[in-house]
Amino acid sequence: MVMSSLKLQDLIEEIRGAKTQAQEREVIQKECAHIRASFRDGDPLLRHRQLAKLLYVHMLGYPAHFGQMECLKLIASPRFIDKRVGYLGAMLLLDERQDAHLLITNSIKNDLNQGIQAVQGLALCTLSTMGSAEMCRDLATEVEKLLLERSPYVRKKAVLTAVHMIRKVPELSDTFLPVCAKLLHERHHGVLLGTITLITELCERSPAALKRFRKVVPQLVQILRTLVTTGYSTEHSISGVSDPFLQVQILRLLRILGRNHEESSESMNDLLAQVATNTDTSRNAGSAVLFETVLTIVDIRSAAGLRVLAVNILGRFLLNSDKNIRYVALTSLLRLVQSDHSAVQRHRPTVVECLWEPDASLSRRALELSLALVNSSNVRAMTQELQGFLESCPLDLRADCASGILLAAERFAPTKRWHIDTILRVLTMAGSHVRDDAVANLTQLIGGAQELHAYSVRRLYSALAQDISQQPLVQVAAWCIGEYGDLLLEGSCEETEPLQVEEEEVLALLERVLQSHMSLPATRGYALTALMKLSTRLRGDNNRIRQVVSIYGSCLDVELQQRAVEYNTLFRKYDHMRAAILEKMPLVDRGGPQADEEVKESKEATHLLEPAPVPTEPQASKLLDLLDLLDGPSEDPQPPPPVDPSPEGTLIHLLDLPCAPLAPAPIPNLRVFEREGLQLNLSFVRPPGTPTLLLITATATNASEGDVTHFICQAAVPKSFQLQLQAPSGDTVPAQGGLPVTQVLRILNPNKAPLRLKLRLTYNHYGRSVQEIFEVNNLPVEAWQ
After folding, report:
1. I need a labelling partner for 327 at 20 to 30 A (CA). Which of 391, 416, 610, 667 fits?
2. Looking at the whole model, is its pTM more than 0.70?
């Protein structure tokens, strides 16, 4: 006998009246037991009531899978009240993962052919909600027939079901192509809106449909013109805008049809200008229509004047009080800044004002757009504005702002002095947030500006005396004082205020950096090397420097201790060579790959004490190793062996013949990735002493107009290999051929098996997050044999 159960309304009241979750679960479990018993032994005529209660329980998040078969029974019932609840249950409880959903295919097919509008509507709604690919293929013919049904109610639902079918099974596009042209003449709002959506889906998925529907562009233009001028009906107007949903959908379809097609674009230019000038933007509905108009103008081959109008509309959006509209405008202008730079440039003051928006997302978008607007003509003014923003911007934006200023200064600096001053101000305000390569870039810039050596060392000394907490600033200052300390003491710079500095003050400042708890190990390495270099540039006694160096001979940091021990050895055993070893660094020209080769050659040909600073801390500590002075990084080629002193070697040397055994042929480089200006090249080196070891240098370069940020390269090899990934030189690949990002992969191949490599690249480019996974199977044979 079936136990008494609650009505749906009573069940809802009791669940809402539960004071605790445990009490709610108790009520639901008790009622679910009643529902199961009713399904098994109850009155079939009341089964729909039990299923309605079960659907409410399902909406609360509780399991209701035992009602799936009851849905099938109710759908097959001849009563409309049963079908209505059964189809609702099927939409909620069934999906493609349930095999039971295929059992209702015949029931849906029978209901579609019944001729009862209400039942046909239920079947179409269910099919468009949970229809699988198999169901779509089986029922496509029935839906096609219903597209020409007399009832607008059925046609509307049939069109929406066809949209679902196209998304599930794109090859069904040919089935619905002939019907769409007839439906464009429809006057019913729902049918016309659904038809435009169906045509949009067809054009996005089928080139043949795209070519076919370009012929109906004049008809679409006429429909939209009628909407703009006379209106569709007052029933579908929102805030004085005539049927904005239909306008937006037509504009999206026109955008697809006019893309890369001159004739279609030309036929819609006048209409787009009319919509852009006549639409009221005081309400959100008008702003939505206007925004779609702007996107359409931008995507098609529109006239130049129309594109300027679109940019001006986005500029007006920046003055809107709605934050969402301002965000949309900033995002759209960021897309247009490359193609319509001069038009976007007119709205630069408004964009700069958006930097101080309290909303973090708006401020970030404004920062990205402001950095994209910097060029050689406005670099001074824009940099000043951005530096003002850097002083007070949130911490999560400080790194992006500082890096953007440094990149803009590097690309558009009018003079070297202005460039140096700009970097110094950024390091002073946000030194801990700058890019990894900021220290290397500034030291290279100062080293190449010989006329600014005295000016730079005085500016850096003054900045260091005021603040030693900004680690990149301290590293650059220590490097500069070590290189040009003699110019600091001369006091002959006319470009700065008179500054009298004593030797003891300079040494005391560097000792303060060494003793500070804020100094990183790499920073202490710079300071210790600077002290060592000052031993050849100061005129006084070097005993104080000797004492400081000897103290750090027992430092807990292994790198710093090794450096100090090597310096002590240089003082004790090789004091006659100290002045030559500690000479100033030579001028290094920056540029493309040719300049990089010259830098490598200069490293091999000259015996330097301190290589140029590098961005990451682990690599900086490696460069502090005095024993590795004559060796570059692990991927650099080794210097040639000395000439054999034997007579045969002398004769060979006099005849300019090779004085050493021929080195193995170099392994050719390999380009493995290229997309939107970003390239990844692999170069290979096999150390002669370890034939099973392969060193791969992955070099990422960027020839596009936008920086590639958050760049990460990950690699995987088969289990028979051993892979070690070293730290990359940075995570930002500057635009237009800036300083590349490099990363070394050490692969041990004991069996000399054919090498396969799987790479995953993740980065942000033009505001989009990109992830690429690919295999490299065409590695040179020399890399593993």
Report:
1. 391
2. no
